[in-house]
Amino acid sequence: MRSLRRLPVELRDRLAGKSDSTKTRGVGIISAGSNMPLSLKELLNRIRQNLGDHAYPNERSVVSRVVMVLLETETLAWDIHNPRQVIEEFSPIPNQIGKKVDLALCAIPQARKADVYIEVKAHGVLKRQEAISEAEAQLGEYESYYRVTLAVLTDGEIWRFYYPLVDGTYADRLALSLNLLNDSLASIEEYFPKLMGFQAVSRGEVAPLIRDLHQKRHEVEQIKADFPAVLRKLLAEPTEGLVQEIVQAYVRDLHVTPDGDTIRQLLKSSESDQWQSQDPSFEEDKEQEVSEEEPLGGGMRAGRSRIRITLSWIAMGQNNPTKVICERKASDSLRVFMESVAGILGREILEKISTFRVHRGPFVTKTPKVHYRYSNNRFFQSQPIANTGFYVLTHSQSSQKVADLENLSRFLRWPAGFLNVEQVMD
Predict the structure, then answer these.
(1) Which residues, at least 6 apart from 289, have a Cβ–Cβ distance to it below 8 Å?
(2) Which of 230, 255, 309, 403 has the most C-beta neighbours closer than 10 Å?
(3) Is residue 171 within 8 Å of residue 133, measured between CB atoms?
(4) Rounded to whole angstroms, how far apart are CA atoms 63 and 77?
(5) Could you give the CA distance from residue 120 to residue 135 in angstroms, rounded to a whole number?
(6) Are 392 and 338 in contact (CB under 8 A)?
């Protein structure tokens, strides 16, 4: 057995059981065949290879072989052997033992409060939106008592950084997302120390950075949302500069010189015809009628598409009769469903549902003009949920509504047999 005296002082102290953070911080992972610790870049390359080989089979391996070793590098410099600085299975809410964050980072243990929460999932889990929504709901519950500066959600490959100190759904708090397999090492090397490094956290540098990243992300999303309206206006009323740029492109590439009026007409034609097929504002709520030309068996024609929702309250332990909801329009059925569950389970259930995202935003929200807006003064269809202040998103086909409700049931872990939903035709 190799003598401890031959090892580097810092590593010898660690193996001997000394946990002084001034001696153990920054030692990092030792490279095979060398006394030199791996750099962050070398370690990221190694983790990349392992991720590609699916070498992390479960959540625990992601915690111990990805997150912990990254925290221990000289660059991030956390003392993972100090249980008051890197806390596993941290209880964020007093007297609620069942709710625990996988890791909490405390730059100043004496302050007895966490600076960063890290929620870890098994590799590959965060490729499913349903899993992301469920994990975001967990983080929201953890922060119901105390909000940290930064919350991190990761499965080893995908790293999502949230700014908890803003309102809205937890998904709205996302500030940055990085992928260890697909994103450049340069960007990962830049942001990991700035967001999760011991020095950055202890000096209070994380809060302004995550706030700026959050603001920038939402500005970009707003630009994307407004782009269809801006482009439509540009096509409908093209500037002379745009017309001449297109004319010059014809001359340069096709050796043809079209006149400006022809270009203007083509742009307006593009705006009125082609663009309509791409703009969400032209997607009507397809729940309405199936085309009368669509035949059914025996020469019959299809009618209106609706959804039937059955709530068996006995499965929820509630002494209420089974309720069947099947309104004339699927969107009305969706609204009545939300009103029914809120009436029995309380408005708190809508708070939980607001953390569940469907394809166009949160399923329910109190701010539809924020969450259901896709361009300037244009909004996805929604309906108010009576006496709650919430709105439910209804801009989808009936089949999508069925899928959304089934996914919601799994997200909330409702017992089997409580919710049954199906698409029906008149």
Answers:
(1) 303, 304, 305
(2) 309
(3) yes
(4) 17
(5) 9
(6) yes
CA 272 to chain centre: 34
Nearest to 406 by CA among 391, 383, 422: 422
Q: Which domains does the chain have, with CATH numbers?
A: 20-216 (3.90.1570), 297-425 (1.20.1380.10)
List, in order, residues 6 or more apart from 46 with CB less than 8 Å away: 38
Query: What CA–CA distance (Å, rounded) separates 71 from 86?
Result: 9
Where are the extended beta strands (E) located within 85-183? 86-90, 101-105, 116-120, 150-154, 158-162, 174-179
pLDDT under 70 in the chain at which residues? 1-36, 270-304, 375-377
List C-alpha distances in Å: 315 to 51, 99, 319, 349, 416.
Answer: 41, 25, 10, 17, 7
| Residue-level pLDDT at 376 | 60
Token pair belonging to 129: 């939106």
pLDDT digits 0-9 by tens, 255-282: 889 998 888 888 877 654 544 444 443 3
Residue 217, token pair as written in the block = 């992300």
